[in-house]
Design brief:
This protein is an alpha+beta fold. It has one domain. Helix content is 25%, strand content 16%. The protein is built from three helices and five strands. It is elongated, with a radius of gyration of 14 Å. It starts with 17 loop residues before the first strand and ends in an 8-residue tail after the last helix.
């Protein structure tokens, strides 16, 4: 599992960002591990790929709270979406 290979050793966390993509369940646990290592919410970038049927924010398939992955993303910082329901679905 990717969370077992994430270590703080050698990381300059203050001058780093983390970019996470993959299955939602993996992204969830990697994000929590990065936060445990000391990354700030604003340093964690998530690729929130969703079914983007229309690509212009009309159909709602890619909606993440008030955002649409097709036109507002698909990459969001964790601080921008962390309080929204069902972000890991």
């Amino acid at each position: 599992m990717v969370t077992t290979i994430l270590k703080k050793d050698g990381l300059d966390i203050e001058n780093s960002v983390a970019i996470v993509c993959g299955p939602p369940i993996m992204m969830k646990f990697v994000t929590f591990k990065l936060l445990d290592l000391g990354f700030k919410d604003s340093q964690v970038y998530l690729s929130m790929e969703k079914n983007m049927s229309c690509g212009i924010g009309k159909c709602g398939h890619c909606r993440i709270g008030p955002y649409y992955a097709c036109k507002d993303g698909p990459v969001f910082t964790y601080d921008r979406i962390k309080g929204l329901p069902n972000i890991w679905d």
